[in-house]
Specification:
The protein is an alpha+beta fold and 294 residues long. It folds into two domains: 114 residues, no CATH class; 117 residues, Nuclear Transport Factor 2, Chain: A (Roll). It contains twelve helices and seven strands. Strands 2-1-6-5-4-3-7 form a seven-stranded mixed sheet, with helices on both faces. It is elongated. The relative contact order is 0.12.
Length: 294
Amino acid sequence: MSADEQTLARLFEASRPHLQGVAFRMLGSLPEADDAVQEAWLRLSRSDAAAVENLTGWLTTVVARICLDMLRSRKARVAGDTESPTSSVQTTSVDPEHEALLAESVGLALLVVLQALDPAERIAFVLHDLFAVPFDDVASIVGRSPDAARQLASRARRRVRGAEPARDGSGAGLAEQRRLVEAFVAALRSADFEGLVAVLGPEFVIRADATASPPNGSLVRGAETWAKQALAWARGAKDSRPVLVNGSVGVVLAPRGRLLRVLLVTFAEGKIAKIEVVADPEQLRQLDLSVLPD
């Protein structure tokens, strides 16, 4: 390797964490993100690097275009995919703990919501809102005008952030719903039986679809009855996060940012009255998920 090639390699490695962060937010998969970054290196090594004035900016653009192609290919496969809508083909070995830490740093709820966006919307939002890439540059990547790129990011922003939900039949607004759901998740994580029962209504019902509870789904009535069962899988609650689901506060279960289940929550008289556990991939795709505002 020549001195110029060694210098280029060092510069690329200095940009790798940034490029990996960009790709991971777009793809939601560390193996695929690493593949995209590696492909960017191959393209760089075949290009006239001396003519590149802003190497990090150039690489960010290349990685974004690679990710857009990968997202479009993934979307084309979804119709015949029987796995979770956020699953992805992993072509590179990866440390699950490393990926889990990266997902946690980004935000599991954000990763789940991003994966529900159209590829072009996702690229526009990630580049502009998360990495401050100008819309002129975003436009060249997604093949749209700057105004169209701005609209893509705006649509994505509305879906990611959601809106204040209307009060449900119980009169519970966003703050009250959030308080109950966060207490519910906290009690599950700590295996707190009394804390779990305290947020559930006296006639609590939880229903799971056939994917979540094969072969025919399940129905459990009674707060204490279900709480005793729930403590057996409390460890999995570490991957649970409150989100907005169809305009109401619910829960996603997303290990390493990959959506497995959504809990649709119904509130009544200051308690959680009912939970619907959705794991069927087609049903998950139809849910409108948004990140809860800070």
